[in-house]
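Q: What would this chain look like folded?
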Amino acid sequence: MYVTADHLREQVIRPTLKYLGVWTPASEDFLLQSAVSAPELGLFSARNTGLGLFHITAAQHRDIWDRYLAFRPDMASRVRGLASQRAFLSDPDSELQTNLSYCTAIAWLLYQRSRVDTDTPAQEAVASATA
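A: My prediction, written as structure tokens:
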């Protein structure tokens, strides 16, 4: 299946961020650039052990659930709503490979948690990461 950047932006990233209630043009651009330019960004750097569009490791995936979403039940419920019913319970990491919306949500949460300066817009973070 061939997916364009526009398709990814309009059919996956934007609806996912809107569903989570965190959509801004900057957050959308950041995730699109992360998907297209992953090696330059660090947080989603290309690596052999990562899963899915954003190369998220199984350890990062577990950590975001155990140390971040566990303390944010409303957001955890929203993210869980993106996952498939049965596959998530038997193999949660497979959702990173087969579910673009779920993978996008986890990528955004990893970025959100990693931000040191919460006043820095995502667009500025992209610019500084690729400079």
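The longest helix spans residues 5-20.
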